[in-house]
Design goal:
The protein is 40% helix and 20% strand. The chain is built from 6 helices and 4 strands; from the N terminus they run ββαββααααα.
Length: 154
């Protein structure tokens, strides 16, 4: 562990029903700052930072609710009709793949102020997207279905 106390600080966000891990930091100040920034976006009902160490155990060191939060806004995928095929790693970063992600995830990207390339390199947003139990599977299923149809496989 990198810090002297052997502690890690997990930043969590709440959608009003459950807590989801957003990031893990080695410094309390960095974790609290990130939690405050996430709360300012207005996308979460609350944020918290949990400290964890072998000696002291687990404790909540920061928690704050969003007074202006009105609930989750449903983000959907777009009804695209084609999806770029990626056979090499570099294909995922080329324009056709970015265009596919940009069209498919337009609402998500607009909501978070991201481009498709930024999403590909932002681990925290990728984690949030993967934790979205509705959006992520639908997006993967849409692209897989289009690619299967294009290559004539089932």
């Amino acid at each position: 562990m990198a810090n002297l106390a052997g502690k890690t600080f997990e930043v969590q966000t709440s959608d009003g029903e459950r807590w989801i891990a957003a990031d893990v930091c080695e410094a309390r100040s960095a974790a609290v700052s990130q939690a405050e920034n996430l709360l300012e976006t207005g996308r979460y009902a609350a944020v918290q930072v949990i400290s964890d160490s072998e000696h002291a155990g687990t404790e909540v060191v920061f928690e704050q609710e969003n007074e202006h939060w009105i609930g989750n806004k449903e983000i959907n995928i777009a009804g695209i009709t084609e999806a770029a095929m990626c056979t090499r790693l570099s294909d995922y970063y080329d324009f056709p793949a970015r265009r596919t992600v940009g069209r498919l995830m337009r609402q998500y990207l607009d909501e978070y102020g991201l481009s498709a390339l930024e999403l590909a390199f932002d681990a925290s947003h990728l984690k949030l997207l993967e934790n979205n139990e509705k959006l992520f599977p639908r997006a993967v299923q849409r692209v897989a279905g289009l690619q299967a149809k294009e290559t004539e496989t089932d």
